[in-house]
What does this fold into?
Amino acid sequence: MADSKDSPLRIGFVPEHFCTPLSFAQKHYGLHAILIPFPSGTGHMITAIRAGEIDVAVGLTEGWIAGLGNENVEGDGGYRLIGTYVETPLCWAISSGPNRSDVVSINSLAGGKIGVSRIGSGSYIMGFVLADEQGWLAEGKPFSDTVVCHTFEKLRAAVVDGSADFFMWEHFTSKKHFDSGELQRLGDIYTPWSSWKIVASTRLTQGGLDPRVKDMLGKIDEGVRHFEENQEEAVEYISNHLGYTEADAREWLKTVRFAAKTEGVKQEVVDGCVSTLRKANVLVEGKGIQPQDMVYRA
It folds into this structure.
């Protein structure tokens, strides 16, 4: 990252429907930033922010928290939670190939091969949350193999060719592939926490929050307000630029609630997520960065 305080922030984001207010913040309210898409998700952004390739990122709550709480975390972890982007939980669709007679229900997934984008990603973590909900953790290793596929496209291919038995991805992003017959839907699972958080590199939080980050949060607030007040523009953007049908865009709008004020993260959300991830054996108590230290505080 350039040292200049005038340099635009490099913001990592997932190029899905949830990015609409971020796009509006830049288009309508002068957000001074370079928006860098990460279609493979939060796990990839964790690697990028630690490598200094991006400065700020918007991604999944469980991915950020698992990345900081991992028992193998190095140094200061590379980033801190600074803001809340989406207040509502995320609905993950559980998908398999369309002609898999051996995979017909969630119950049939125990001991199977789970496809994930990356180790530590939301798709990886939610596998353990699913296993915990289904009672598979008590039986030992819940899955026979974890197949790392990196992208949504490769995850779809993996369940079609049988190299993975199932994977999980956001419901509306998956839906068009159910509608086309490319995938079969086995069910859904919701995160037990608000779904999207904003993080900043620890280089931008030392000695106070970088003024550009404060400005960014204010501009995203304006983008959220614009999104709420201009739903038709949101539908147009989602359906014309992000590859969703107009009907799915409208249906998604009924389910999502963005944070009116993005700055800040509630400690109880972090604590609850950590508790679930420890129960699911994703995190180990006493290891990694502790929950109270994951959030930036002025």
